[in-house]
Write a structure and sequence with these properties.
The complex is a heterodimer. Chain A is an all-alpha fold. Chain A folds into two domains: 55 residues, no CATH class; 222 residues, MetI-like fold (Orthogonal Bundle), CATH 1.10.3720.10. Chain A is 66% helix and 0% strand. The longest helix of chain A is centred in the first third of the chain and has 33 residues. By secondary structure, chain B is mainly α. Chain B contains 18 helices and two strands. Chain B has a two-stranded antiparallel ribbon. In chain B, α1 packs across α2 and α5 crosses α18. Classes of the chains: A mainly alpha, B mainly alpha. At the A-B interface, α1, α4, α5, α6 and α10 of A face α2, α3, α7, α8 and α9 of B. Chain B: Keywords: Membrane, Transmembrane, Transmembrane helix, Transport. Chain B: It is found in: Cell membrane; Membrane. Chain B: Belongs to the binding-protein-dependent transport system permease family.
């Protein structure tokens, strides 16, 4: 190892400094939102930059948790995340596992057909009409079913299952297991860490679902959290959709309440984030680019 | 092949029958495996392939009351109407402008960032920076929009508050047509530049460390090492991601534009998807907007296949 020269040391220091500065810039908006969410609305109206919560109060959060529509939308989003993730993992992992078995006849054709779905998207209208024809409008299934799998997810999971040796399942087959038993009793338990990672990605996607909800859910009683949030943040003084979203007679929600809602929507993601991060480096993404 | 089969099976069955039988045998042996694939295959058929078939309505006057099978065929009428519409040029301009802004400023951001991160020696610090810059990727566009309003707003926004504190003029980030595209690019960078480094950092860690040693021996400076070792080392990954991005050139995130657009910027914020949503989903012009969507998809397909071919011509691996 050759020692760093002085210019290289300077390079290193400047580099680190820039990155720290950048991280601060990245984190500042979230911190700012957080401090507004704990600020008394009357204090907020006095204006100025709120670098720390002024008139520290939990009122904004208490207010949100006393509004039925908000509570319900959290319940709906949690339902989507739990049911969608469970079903999505089953559907995607079973298909990905089968496609990772090289002895499967027709494997190449199926892989090609799935690649095509990555390259060509039919667009909004055919999907919209399909959901309508299936009678899923205003049903939460319209948000769960179309997102159960995707070409990328299948390829990602497949490249993970590729690394499980065939000898493992051969042993199980000799012991009298059929392929479904092998998948359920051997492959899935073995893949739990990877499945957990995929599951977290699924859960975040379901928690954040917005576009499909805009398309398919008109009944504001069935709105997931993101739609309610949007209504609060953007349309709070128009009466589209469910009228004034939080309370009759209140024209505009104070900024501090909006920001409390943003924080509440962010907290579940913050909670799963450490687990997500644990797996970043493990190469879940690495094999994915090339398929 | 046929000869071989005939030699193996001297009976009076013809070879194609034998092959058929052998295939059936294999399929029967793997019957549980096929059963396992069934839900997934059904999903792809229903939610990916049936919508592709549904695109035929782009060539019809589709009416929900008579259904796809009984609607009148009109050929390319909807396409002709779309291309002769002055909206088309505005949509195309906005979409391409937003895409190329992203390609130019957002695409290189994670590459630069990952090269910078790779030079950080302190492991704990590196972890910390990663934790911070990955996080926004997981936030929904609704949350990002909410944060943007509070940061960039005219009257209450932080940046404008700071500007007016110093006696400078306020900047109408959210309501100015000329700032709308840069604002979208900035949002993209804030949300995804950090996350984008995951893949490049992985690629950089795969570079043979002896290459750096050799470069150092030859007296190459840090910048020269980055230029001559790091960048070529991740060239293929950059290329693959660029191909994917080119395929998405017609796809500017609907959610982002839909949330950030307002009456003040509608002239620069209308893209293909918002147009399809407005005229198709809200106004029920299904056939017309399906043709707009089909046009978009075909251009996307041509872009990604063309870029892939180009990559292969330059001796790179490409996407598929």
């Amino acid at each position: 190892m050759i020692k760093d020269s002085i210019p290289e040391k300077i390079f290193g220091r400047v580099n680190v400094l820039l990155l720290i500065l950048l991280s601060l810039v990245m984190v500042f908006p979230l911190y700012y939102v957080f401090s507004i969410s704990l600020t008394d609305p009357r204090e907020y109206l006095k204006g100025g930059i709120i670098l720390y919560p002024r008139g520290l109060t939990w009122d904004n959060y208490e207010y949100l948790f006393s509004t039925p529509l908000f509570i319900r939308s959290i319940g709906i989003s949690a339902f989507l995340a739990i049911v969608g993730t469970t079903l999505g993992l089953i559907v995607t992992s079973s298909l990905a596992y089968t496609l990772s078995r090289k002895r499967l006849l027709g494997r190449k054709i199926i892989l090609l057909l799935i690649l095509i779905t990555i390259l060509f998207h039919p667009g909004i209208i055919p999907n919209y009409l399909l959901i309508r024809e299936l009678g899923l409008m205003n049903s939460l299934w319209s948000l769960i079913l179309p997102a159960l799998s995707s070409g990328w997810n299948v390829f990602l999971m497949k490249s993970f299952f590729d690394s499980i040796p065939a000898s493992l399942e051969e042993a199980a087959v000799i012991d009298g297991c059929n392929d479904m038993h092998v998948w359920w009793r051997i492959i899935l338990p073995l893949s739990l860490p990877a499945l957990a990672t995929f599951g977290l990605f699924f859960a975040v996607a379901y928690w954040n679902v917005f576009f499909n909800a805009v398309l398919y859910i008109n009944d504001f009683k069935k709105w997931p959290l993101q739609l309610v949030l949007r209504q609060m943040l953007i349309d709070s003084n128009t009466s589209a959709g469910g009228g004034n979203i939080l309370e009759e007679g209140q024209m505009v929600n104070p900024q501090s309440i909006k920001m409390a809602a943003v924080i509440i929507a962010t907290i579940p993601i913050m909670m799963v984030y450490p687990f997500l991060q644990k797996h970043f480096a493990k190469g879940v993404m690495v094999g994915s680019v090339k398929e | 092949m046929k000869k071989v089969l005939a030699a193996v099976n001297p009976g009076n069955e013809n070879p194609s029958q034998t092959r058929m039988r052998r295939r059936m045998k294999i399929i029967f042996r793997d019957r549980y495996l096929y059963l396992l694939a069934l839900p997934g295959l059904f999903f792809f058929l229903l939610f990916k392939y049936i919508p592709m078939w549904g695109l035929v309505i782009a060539f019809q006057n589709y009416s929900p009351y008579v259904g796809i099978l009984n609607s009148d065929w009109v050929g390319l009428e909807h396409f002709a109407r779309f291309f002769s519409n002055s909206d088309f040029y505005i949509l195309l301009r906005n979409t391409l402008a937003i895409s190329f802004m992203n390609l130019l400023f957002f695409f290189p951001a994670p590459i630069i960032l990952s090269i910078m991160m790779n030079e950080v020696r302190q492991v704990v610090l590196k972890r910390l920076i990663q934790t911070v810059i990955y996080f926004p990727h997981f936030l929904s566009w609704v949350i990002i929009a909410g944060i943007s309003f509070i940061m960039l707003g005219q009257s209450e926004g932080v940046i404008n508050s700071i500007l007016s504190l110093f006696g400078m003029e306020k900047i109408p980030f959210l309501t100015s047509s000329s700032l709308f595209w840069p604002m979208l690019t900035l949002q993209n960078i804030w949300k995804d530049a950090g996350w984008g480094t995951v893949i490049f950092l992985a690629a950089i860690s795969g570079i043979d460390p002896t290459l750096y040693e050799a470069a150092k021996m030859d007296g190459a400076s840090k910048l020269k090492q980055i230029w001559h070792v790091t960048l070529p080392g991740i060239g293929n990954v950059i290329l693959v991601l660029l191909i994917l991005k080119l395929g998405d050139v017609m796809d500017v995130g609907f959610e982002q534009v839909f949330l950030m657009g307002s009456a003040a910027v509608s002239n620069v914020a209308d893209v293909f998807d918002t147009y399809v949503y407005r005229n198709g989903v809200l106004n029920g012009e299904f056939s017309y907007t399906a043709s707009v969507g089909l046009f978009k998809s075909i251009v996307g397909l041509i872009m990604v296949m063309g870029a892939n071919k180009l990559a292969k011509m330059f001796g790179q691996d490409g996407l598929y």
